[in-house]
Queue: 2 jobs
Job 1
Amino acid sequence: MAATAASSTDAPLLILGGGLMGLAVAHQLARSGQPVEVLSRRRSEAAGFVAAGMLAPHAEGLSGALLELGQRSLERIPTWVAQIEADSGLSCGLRPCGIVVPFATAAERDVYPTAAWGEPLDRQGLERELPGIGPGWQAGLLFRQDGQIDNRRQLMRALERACVEQGVRFQEGVEVLELLREDGRLCGVRVRDAAADVRILQADTAVLCSGAWSAQLMPELPIVPVKGQMVSLQGPREALQRVIFGPGTYLVPREDGLLVVGATSEREAGFTEGLTPFGQRQLQAGVEALLPAASQWPPMERWWGFRPCTPDEGPLLGPSAMPGLWLAAGHHRNGVLLAAITAELLAACLSSAGCTVEQQGLLEAFRWDRFQAFIAQA
Ligand code: GLY
């Protein structure tokens, strides 16, 4: 394995990670005319291919600055999707179908953190919105403003094509081994490429979009993996119109009747790959409780992945401790929802005009060093 140094003086901005966040940021930067190169280790492990694609700041019961960020992103999604569709010529599968959160009692419904943004439902309302819902649910909240996008089959492909059309360059099968610095600031990265050659790529600006693996490059970042297992079932077309967001299990109906069922949340699993009988039984039990008929629908696919989780479950956005290195990582359960606003904010940070006061305000709550106690212990 030879270590060689590239000698480009006109190095492109590097995106470290070819998942949803990396593609979204690369696309916005390229649209603003910046030369961008994406380094991607293994596309299939990206959380953007694993997630169910819910756009659910309200159904997820977010609060505080994370709710505000999610709401801002939700507003931006139609424009963002239109840009991707125009650049790629492909549909992203955006479905503003609304999401229902069911509850065992009205009292539980009324204390849900985002209850004020939803439409309260009684049992009759639940049956109207979700024909066939299980008997254990007596109340619900309908969030008409939440929805879904077909991330796994459509969005990722469209975004990648949009990037290519905008001139983004890709290096696949490339693992970033080390961030290199000179006088404290980023000057490049050491990578191992698909042929196992170790090389140095010069760069004075990069964005770290490495999801659950981000702390492997910057150990001071408090990001840990939270494994999720998924399954999809083939149902009749239009059997279910809205997403059902139950406790521990959610059902996301695609237009063609495919039902995406998620997800376990396994903090203790670390990066252990694979499905487990326990995890799959948990999903099965969730389906039976939420929509009993769906437990008879044939399974189509089973998969798993790793959410990038921070101590407060919010992302790390903006500058890092290393001048030249920027962060777009740690989106935990909300990566698909937050991709649009993340791309907008990072593109603004890296533009010659810089961020607006409003964008600075949004970024402030998601600084990487906000976990003082956690960082002091590390
Ligand atoms: N966004 C839902 C999940 O991460 O399971």
Job 2
Amino acid sequence: MISIAIHGGAGVINRASMSTENERAYRIDLERALDAGYAVLEKGGASLDAVVAAVRILEDSPLFNAGKGAVFNHAGINELDASIMDGATQKAGAVAGVRHVKNPIELARMVMEHSPHVLLSGEGAEEFALEQGVTLVPGSYFYTERRWKQLEDAQQAEKTQRVASAADEDIGFFSTVGAVARDRNGNLAAATSTGGMTNKRWGRIGDSPIIGAGTYADNATCAVSATGSGEYFMRAVVAHEICARVRLSGVTAAKAAHDVVHGTLKDIGGDGGVVVVDKGGAITLEFNTEGMFRGARDSGGRREVAIY
Ligand code: ASP
């Protein structure tokens, strides 16, 4: 069985405030990403290539909080995080707080494949990007009006001590992107990319570039990519926790994902979701929020994209 699952973030996705046109745009980009990843697998390609192909498309779409369209930090700058893990070798690569890398997921993969390290951050990561010949762009490339308005609103809310409402935030906070896949050889891979959280400061880094929290893959169990309130995903080490449960207690990945997302994570106050593919190729899409932009496709004929 070959399978791929993707997400474009989870959270308060207000059905009433989402126009039909908007919804269509999200679905189109999710389908494009899903099908691009699946096409790699169908041709006999590796799960690592499939997850990168899918995430790249979501990074290039201005709709999602990753690459183009990423949220702004407190200083009005886009700082991007990404990570990738190879379930066959347990190798992993990640970048945090990069400001000029067009596709952070590609840089994360280069960290995994062309450096002795797992996680590079900030200027050092960009120096590495330059050496590797990764596409660099001026900071203005990441600008979108919608994300700028979200920053203004968040800062206004902070000043007046008003909690930013779901309507203000639109479909904002958690629209990180990610993908998990199983290829023909039974190899699993997971990838996640994000702009983090609107109005973040002090060099804040979330779960997305943290191996074990936002991303994990192990051929013996499953591959996981997460989205949601990063601080809680880090504390619950969500992605690794799901794989560990499968390995240690023999539950299915579906049960492990359900219990972690609705139990462990929710119990400490964490909101969000995960996409999971297990060693046999079974897909699980689990979230404890109102919605999660998501998609799943496998060689058993499943092909779906959903939001709520
Ligand atoms: N998990 C991401 C973070 O905390 C946010 C998201 O999922 O959109 O940085």
